[in-house]
Amino acid sequence: MNDLKDRVVRMSGSRVERCMRCGKCSATCPSYEDMEYHPHEFVYLVERGDVEKLLASESIYKCLTCFACVERCPRGVEPAKVVEAVRLIAVREQGKNRLKPDDLPALTDADLPGQALATALRKYAK
Amino acid sequence: MRKIGVFVCHCGTNIAATVDVKAVAETLGREPSVVVSEDYPYMCSESGQNLIKDSIRDYGLDGIVICSCSPRMHENTFRKAAASAGLNPYMVEIANIREQCSWIHKDKAEATEKAILLGKAAIAKVLLNTPLIAGESGVVKRALVIGGGIAGIQTALDIAEAGFPVDIVEQKPTIGGKMAQLDKTFPTLDCSACILTPKMVDCAQNENIKIYSYSEIESVSGFVGNFTVKIRRKARYVDETKCTGCGLCTEKCPVKKVPNEFNLGLDNRRAVYIPFAQAVPKIAAIDADYCNMLKNGKCGLCSKVCTVGAIDYKQEDTFVEERYGAIVAATGYEIADVSRYGEYAYNQSKDVVTSLELERLMNAAGPTGGTLLRPSDGKHPHTIVFVQCVGSRCTPDKGKPYCSKICCMYTAKHAMLIREKYPDTEVYVFYIDVRTPGKNFDEFWRRAVEEFGVHYIKGAVGKISPRPDGTLDVQGSDLLMDEQLHISADLVVLAAAIEPSKTARSLATMLTASMDTNDFFTEAHPKLRPVESPTAGIFLSGVCQGPKDIPETVAQASACAAKVIGLLSKDKLKGNPCVAHSDEMMCNGCSNCANVCPYGAITYSDKEFRMPDRTTKTRRVAWVNPAVCQGCGACTVACPSGAMDLLGFSNSQIMAEVDALCR
Question: What is the mean pLDDT of residues B412-419?
């Protein structure tokens, strides 16, 4: 197992080898059209150890972390957690945070789920 | 001085690759009482067995230890070999150095050490073995088949054909099972009812077959060759001996809105009903949950119209007790609940149906008379989407971990039949894999694609959304195109997982038959004894053992019948001499043993005992019926005074094994 795959698997806790390639995650994904790599490809590329491709792709910022794929994956692979782990590897490198905490108050409202706030910190360029 | 022989098997490389078999034979050969110790590549082979037999004769052995595979595999083989050389078969002990040693260890030195210890324990035990002689018991020449679907029907017919009486117990008012609900059968597309109903009639007419319909198993006792079964005959409020099945009552009954379970609730039936036209027995039954007369004493119309006076509102459940030599479980399957998968909108739209519901919608005897119409508005569907693997192949928290096996073929069947009958209909099938092993099976689904133009899409459906215009938005993935698709469908068919009947687990408990974690009955050996339960005298037929289609079910049902016939044609059965017995001098009459005995083998009696002071004392003591005891040993563990002991597995033998391991 290469180092990056190791880190993704450890951080996500996902058992990528459980994937049976049904494509349910991509079938259910609301951000599908915006993504270069789709949820099932995230799982497959991590399983193959091709994490660099994902790190370089804008797709990691397109996932809404809505967890629909986690909810519906029949094999318990939890693709959103894989995406989140790849994203974390990208943003933990210096200066990759896309939003500054000071920018947040202007962008939020009372209906915004707390979970979305946390991920928004690393996701959006706007 | 005892003379023990030790025989260490290599099992090819199964044992020899991980265990130093030569060292095991050499070390065990130095144990006291061991006069010969050999190793051999395949001890179960004829020449291996001859090595054992010759040694028994040449050295005058009075006990042997075989270091080999699990006793479940070859204990019988080696016992027979010993017996043919004149040694009592219960003077054979097996040290399991394969399943419990070589297969689970990687380090050769450790595995070898453990194999030697297991061998030493077996030697310690065999030194305390005593020759045992198996008793004999009779065989009741009658079989019981539980479940009247195609599996139970075929098994019963084959047993009856061989000349043995057989009873079918079916919980529904008619036999026929799921196959009676199907439209056509793959891969030949012949009409299901046309090939099933003659068999149902055969059952009714065969003088060796008795059908207890609308009945359930209440209790089971006894053992192989001699079971006693109590059958509950549920009140159907119709006298079976009088009803002619004319159906007049079912036309006049004023309660018209009872969901028709035969059509899976797609239409309604009356409170008094005959499940379907070809029902066997063709006898009406009154549904007590809906009948006005039974609920509040007002109505009685069916009784007035019945020309033979068969209606009996006062009928109650009755019980039949019958003895059987063999019992067949043929309890079949149910469709798993698909409403738990909210994304398929099964509960939101009438136009999302299961495949079994589609069978009824396409069946000439179904609610639509065989014309495929949408349940919501009765219109012809023009775009139909099939979704495969709904609830199958999941992690256990998400559904069934197994492949339901029949869905790929029946979906290809449905798709083909629809395209043939309604060529203007587009049919899409979302699949993960198409699994069609079997004679003419792969050719069958290829025909669906190549000749009937069915669109197979590699991918899953993520979401189904009912739209205001009555169509269903099916959102799915096409993995080969790497696209997310939206199909506007009129009808969606879910290939729901199949699961064992809900009644199977309680039945397994009554039969003391084992089950797997999915509630399928476990076979005695997955390859070599596929139609027998590990519990002697219990046999398995059909889907209750695992998912299978009709051809496989019928093959297995006949195989099961062959095994039952083999048992019933014996006059005497050799029992298991390893049974429990109670030391009356130590028994304190506490009843713990009788309470834990799963076979009801233990009874108590008051006995007079002469005391040291020459008085007589009456004490309550346990007695084990050796014909009923199966030698499970539960009583020996429960007994607080140590009075209960098991022949062949006595407390002293087991302690000797433990001592040998701890030495």
Answer: 98
In DSSP notation, B237-287 reads: SB-TTT-----HHHHH-S---EE-GGGTTSSEE-SEE-SSTT-SS---EE-
Q: Are strands B498-500 and B455-458 parallel, antiparallel or unpaired?
A: unpaired
Q: How many domains does chain A have?
A: 1
Contacting B residues, span 415-434, partner chain A, CB-CB under 8 Å: 432
Instruction: Please tell me the distance in Å from A69's CA to the nearest CA on chain B.
Output: 9
Tokens of B510: 């009554």
CATH of region B336-499, choose from 3.50.50.60, 3.10.560.10, 3.60.21.70, 3.40.50.970:
3.50.50.60
- CATH 1.10.287 for domain B4-126: no
pLDDT confidence of residue A112: 72
Query: What is the pLDDT at residue A125?
Result: 42
The model's pLDDT over B598-620, given as tens digits with 9 standing for 90+, comes to: 778 899 999 998 888 999 999 99
Greatest C-alpha distance within chain A? 44
The reply to whether B143-231+317-332+508-568 and B336-499 are identical in fold is yes
> What would the two tokens of residue B119 be?
């061998």
Across the interface, of B394, B397, B484, the residue whose CB is closest to A32 is: B484
Distance of alpha carbon B173 from alpha carbon B170, whole angstroms: 7
Task: Tell me what ipTM this predicted complex has.
Answer: 0.82
Closest chain B residue to A78, measured at CA: B395
Which residues from B are below 8 Å from A22, CB to CB?
389, 432, 459-460
- For the CA atoms of B543, B548, B553, B556, the dihedral, rounded to the nearest 10 degrees, stands at -90
Flag whether A69 is in a domain. Answer: yes
Question: pLDDT digits over B41-78, tens only?
Answer: 999 999 999 999 999 999 999 999 999 999 988 999 99
**A vs B: CB pairs below 8 A:** 68
Asked whether residue A15 is assigned to any structural domain, the reply reads yes
State the pLDDT at residue B343: 96
- The residue-averaged pLDDT of B496-507 equals 97
Range(s) of the domain holding residue A45: 3-98
Kindly list the residues of chain A whose beta carbon comes within 8 Å of any beta carbon in chain B. 18, 20-29, 32-33, 38, 40-41, 68, 72-76
Taking CA atoms, what residue in A is nearest to B399? Answer: A74
Distance from CA of B430 to the nearest CA of A (A): 10
Does residue B148 sit in helix, strand or coil?
Answer: coil
B464/chain A closest Cα distance in angstroms? 10
B398 → closest Cβ in A38, A40, A74: A74
> How far does A49 lie from chain B, in Å, by closest CA?
20
What CATH number did the domain enclosing A12 receive? 1.10.1060.10
Below-50 pLDDT ranges, chain A = 125-126
With beta carbons under 8 A apart, name residues in chain A contacting B460: 22-24, 27
Which H, E and C letters describe B482-513, residue by residue? CEEEEEEECEEEEEECEEECCCHHHHHHHHCC
Q: Which of B114-128, B615-629, B647-661 shows the lowest mean pLDDT across its residues?
A: B615-629
Q: Which CATH class is domain B143-231+317-332+508-568?
A: alpha beta
Residue in B closest to A69 by C-alpha: B462
B475 Cβ under 8 Å from any chain A Cβ: yes
Q: What is the pLDDT of residue A93?
A: 72
User: Which region, left, alpha or beta, applies to residue B33 given φ > 0 means left and ψ of -120 to 50 means alpha?
Assistant: left
B580-647 has CATH 3.20.20.70 classification:
no
Nearest CA in chain B to A18: B395
Question: For chain B, what are the domain ranges?
Answer: 4-126, 143-231+317-332+508-568, 248-305, 336-499, 580-647
